[in-house]
Design a protein that fits this description.
heterodimer, A: about 100 residues, alpha+beta, 4-stranded antiparallel sheet, B: about 550 residues, alpha/beta, 4-stranded mixed sheet, binds iron/sulfur cluster
Amino acid sequence: MAESKNYYLICYDIRDPKRWRKAYKLLKGYGESIQFSIFRCRLSQRDREQLRWKLEEVLAEEDSLLIAGLCQRCVQRIEACNRPEAWDVDHNLHQIF
Amino acid sequence: MTITSTEALVESQETIRVNALHALNYCPRLYYLEEVEQLYTQDASVFAGRRLHVELEKDEDGDWQQFVLESEKLGLRGKVDALRTRGGQTIPYEHKRGRCYRDSNNKPQAWESDRIQVLAYALLIEAELGIIVPEGRVRYHADNVLVHVPLDDQGRQDVLNCIDKARQLRMSSERPPVATNERLCGRCSLSPVCLPEETRLAQGTTEQVVRLFPEDDERQVIHVTEAGTRIGKSGDQFKITKRDGQVVTLPSRQVSQLVVHSFAQLSTQAIYFCAEQEVGVHFISGGGRYLGSLDTRQGSIQRRIQQYKALTDSEQCLKLAKQLVECRGQSQRKFLMRGQRNADEHREALEQTIAQMQRTLKGVSTAQSTASLLGLEGNLAALYFGALPHLISDNVALGMKFSGRNRRPPKDRFNALLSFGYSMLLKDVMNAILTVGLEPALGFYHQPRTQAPPLALDLMEIFRVPLVDMPVMASVNRNQWDVDEDFNVQRDQVWLSDAGRRKFISLYERRKEEQWKHPVTQYSLTYRRLIELEVRLLEKEWMGEGGLFAQLVVR
Ligand code: SF4
């Protein structure tokens, strides 16, 4: 199946600092943190499910998690309405150090 | 080949996973790819399915159990999702995310693969616990239907037949044909590997390809060119520390390759991580030579045995080699034809070369051996590189002129650009070969002379013109190079400087992002995807599903 990717906003409320750090570290591998407890991840369906599965293992009953998918039009509107630094997307497929 | 035979022996005694029976009933080829060739890609539904089970587990009031069972006698093993005791009877449950099957009376039924799966669990429980299991149940969550599947004589026989079939297939060295029901492929997690559409096209059983091969790999290629840079790992991220202490972190899932130029440091942790996350690691020397790649292929032995078998067949090799020479030769010729339009004073010279190349190319189809092919290829290359200078426009700086191909070491700037470009290309072709799990040392055309692996050299032929020659020529004609800054010159040896190297990497990586419409499958892919597709199409050649390989000719 063609693996198209979409942006997701992942927001969470985690009561315990230990779990919070775990989730934060996990999410760092999937996308970038744009505000406190809000991540932006560009994921394929497969990655999204994998991430959900892994987060589920970290979170406890009392924590909350919100995964909001954004369509292409949503993203364009975000890019247009926001302060530039709130949503800068690096479309480069390579980087040189 | 002793390793293979002992492996086959061990395998034949091993029990079969119940999940593999499920796959077998879905599509025998899927079973084969997973169980024999050991290609697992965990797709979204695999993970989603697992979560469903976790959620269910939380809901249950203690009568939920998971069992790992194995029966030598049945030759079966598996993990039972759910087992409940109701009125003294033990019943296995299977939970499915999708909808049930409806028979002609619109009555809900289990899909055949689900039916076999739950019955197989029932049989396993009987064998292990010594009890009678009357039935299994499958719950379909999408339409909230519970289907009862009785374990009657027919049911038992069906499972046993299925185990038999699975055993036989495991001993077979033939990959089963693609499913006739095309809808199965759309939902199959292995379709990017199996390429059923391309096979159907090659076999003439369909006119049009629905693209299942994934078009976009959005992950980045990371080049580290500055000596002294350290690449480490921190959690799920790569951590790149520059010499001045500046730190950049990258989410691991956004990285597809790490290319280490000159002496950057790569930590052992990072190497392990790359192996685990299937991130390609490649080394390029300071002089711009491809040195090698980290090879983390596991399994895929079956595929390499097939490759070995196919490549000992000299007929087959010659046929593939002809396709390669034809593909590159035609691309070279077409590139000269393009240039002809703008080259007023050189038009005549170009015309002659183009005609001569065409005559030489005619000889390719009738060549009797790889030796004579090599001769023809040499002639083509001489004609092509001899005419290439005519494409350079007059206002290009003198230092960028080109007067024929030379290498190891390159003697002028133009050659330095070509050489570095071919190194980059070799790296990408190697990356694709390792991703697919083939053996780079077994080629069908090039002989192992330099340290570059023959199969990679073979596959490179297809992409030399479009990915290196064309962008190099275009950049020279646009005067993008600084004759002093971008190159290091020592007597008559020329390399790219740090600045030049960075420029080139950008140029090349951007070129790879451009789309090319495949002339046979008719779909457009970026060059970066096309390289991997081409490797998979090559593999199909020797699995008896060929016909699409090396058709990419520049227009
Ligand atoms: S893609 Fe189609 S033919 Fe290939 S394994 Fe999956 S279902 Fe079978």
